[in-house]
């Protein structure tokens, strides 16, 4: 059983969403159409792959976690979308998978072994293709006044070593120039869409369970105590148990350059 097996359903339900407006904006900006093929690396339950599926042609999702692939398969069936799923790591993909006009990577880049991933991307991305490193997160510019208390609660219940790992993951996502340094890829423009939605205090507390540092497997029988503690911290900041969340969804474009970067 993989490290994400205990949180598949929670992850799909509770992480900040990629709204339909995000996919429409990316498709419009990149002029994507049915002639384009897309592969989603670290697809998880298929959120990115299925979000783009109505707009492009061939869709492939790759993930090493069987439970995530099972969730993606069910989601594709519910959406009546064709989705080819491959079990395994990005680094281990064979050349027979082909080349793609769009390569999407969501909350997965930090799990990939850098050097073999870069080598695989060289063969995976079509000559005029683009990599989209995507993220969806609560805006941290003061528009979500409950967020500091929420992060304090998360840290209080997280396993310290895994919290440090999660911090490293956030740095990897922000430092794309560093990840792609020495390759023929370079970070370009960012596509960003902000949207608001209402989320219950209970669901925000349950979202803590979707992180590797505070998953059900880590918390064990402390999970219910964690849920109660986070709820009590957030209830004074809510309106009848509901909180407005401003979510930013981003797609950082990474394109191939003509020569090696320094």
Structure notes:
- The chain has 262 residues and is an alpha/beta fold.
- The chain contains eleven helices and seven strands.
- It has helices at 8-14, 20-30, 47-52, 66-78, 114-124, 147-157, 160-174, 176-180, 201-207, 216-219, 223-234; strands spanning 38-41, 59-63, 84-87, 100-105, 125-138, 185-200, 242-256.
- It has a seven-stranded mixed sheet with strand order 3-2-1-4-5-7-6.
- Helix 4 (66-78) links the parallel strand 2 and strand 3 (84-87).
- Helix 6 (147-157) runs antiparallel to helix 11 (223-234) and helix 9 packs across helix 11 (223-234).
- The longest helix has 15 residues, at 160-174.
- The protein is globular, with a radius of gyration of 19 Å.
């Amino acid at each position: 059983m993989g490290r994400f097996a205990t949180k598949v359903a929670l992850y799909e339900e509770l992480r900040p969403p990629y709204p339909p407006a995000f996919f429409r904006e990316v498709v419009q900006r990149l002029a994507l159409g049915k002639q384009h093929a897309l592969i989603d690396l670290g697809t998880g339950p298929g959120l990115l792959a299925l979000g783009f599926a109505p707009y492009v042609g061939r869709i492939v999702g790759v993930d090493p976690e069987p439970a995530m692939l099972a969730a993606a398969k069910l989601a594709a069936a519910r959406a009546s979308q064709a989705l080819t799923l491959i079990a395994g790591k990005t680094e281990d993909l064979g050349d027979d998978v082909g080349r793609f006009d769009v390569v999407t990577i969501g909350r997965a880049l930090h799990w990939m072994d850098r050097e073999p991933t870069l080598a695989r991307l060289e063969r995976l991305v079509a000559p005029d293709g683009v990599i989209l490193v995507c993220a969806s997160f609560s805006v941290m510019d003061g528009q979500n006044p409950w967020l500091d208390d929420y992060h304090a609660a998360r840290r209080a219940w997280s396993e310290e070593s895994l919290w440090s790992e999660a911090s490293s993951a956030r740095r990897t996502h922000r430092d794309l120039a560093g990840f792609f340094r020495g390759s023929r890829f370079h970070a370009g423009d960012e596509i960003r869409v902000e949207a608001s939605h209402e989320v219950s205090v209970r669901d925000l507390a349950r979202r803590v369970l979707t992180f590797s540092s505070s998953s059900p497997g880590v918390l064990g029988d402390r999970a219910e105590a964690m849920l109660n503690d986070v709820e009590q911290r957030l209830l004074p900041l809510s309106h009848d148990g509901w909180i407005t969340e401003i979510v930013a969804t981003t797609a950082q474009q990474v394109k191939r350059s003509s020569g090696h970067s320094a």
